[in-house]
Amino acid sequence: MENKLQNNEKIIFLLDMDAFYAGCHIAENNTLADKNLVVSSPNRRAIILTASYNSRKYGIKAGMPLYKAKEICKDLCVVDTNFQLYINYSEKVFDYIYTNFSKKIEVASIDECYIDVTNIWKKYGTVKKLAELIIKKIKLDLNLSCSIGISTNKFLAKMAVDFNKPSGVTILLKKDIQKMLWPLNIKKMFMIGEATEKLLNLYNITTIKDLALHDKNKLISLIGKRGDTLWNWANGVSSDNVSWDNNDLKSIGNEMTLNYTTNNPKELENLIFELSVKVSDRAKKRYLLGWTVSIVLRYLNDELKENFNLKDRKKHISKQEKLLEPTNEVEDIFTTSKKCFYDLWKGESILLVGVRLTQLVSSINHYKQKEIINWGYKLKEVSENLNKDLLYRLKNKYGKSVIFTGVNYEKINNKNRSQSKYIKKDDVHLSNDQVIKKWKNNSK
Question: Which of 123, 138, 169, 360 has its CA 20 to 30 A from that of 282?
């Protein structure tokens, strides 16, 4: 590969964790390694989130209903979802790469990241040797399996990684796309979902080659501006910019799928409150505020009640509202999300509720300098040797999360950066057992 690079071409890795959620549970409990493991929530509508490679041999895969997987594999081992565990391991992996290999890292999702190795690969001999070393070290030190796709831009690296999983390395250069990329079914292409696939199929675009050779302007008229991007990708043209700045956290959310549908407004308000508390707590722990609060609902579309395909009958709706000031307070989040809920809700029986805080900013940087009028001081005039009495009174007046010494400010700012640098969208899907217990207790 090294001899085939053109001037100014970069070398980009896409590191993708193998069966990541299942892998995290195995890393915690190695006795699960040889089992037919799947990760799923415990409710009766549960679907498979991740299937280990052992269980995939039976045809079990993500998105399959849990009951169906149990019919296929009688000794299926089911573990409950633990999103905090996945976040912890995700940050361990990205920190490991950042600390030991390259600081030019851009997180694409909880289990994959781009790495720019242009300036470091030579000390490892070859590009492939570096990739193999990263895979080996992550397995050895974190007990997790990953694969790496290699190219000169991000899209081709992303497409390359799926050719040789698990624990594999694949190189895909622009000169190779006609042989390796074009024969693939269009649904295998990154960012092509089911709806886009069906639309493209109507115009006889069934492979990536068909897309690459299709008239670009007609493609844009068919699927909008995204058509330009997809056409370029299919022809091997993509960004090679791996940006650390893209790792900033974009949202914090909690959602919950109910064990049963409900249209009881009191139950739904209780649920929205519980979710608001979770979002508020997690935002405060990260010293983050959000400018926008949103609600997400899923319900069964009764107009399609004769349709026995549950997936087709489920309908998602959402609404958001911009605040006058950013917040992480539970009262603000609950009040706004409840308002959005009642703006949306028309009495349908609800399957899922989600609350999300977006347009995030650092609470530390947002708070304005406050004058200390009562004691005859101004913050800018106070030295680093602030006496304990003054700090005590300041924190009493403005709150512990607002007043910091310079040293503590740096510590907390660095902690906030560390906690949010890898996870763009910190959304957690909860079990509703805790809320159900509260409802039962409140009704006694």
Answer: 138
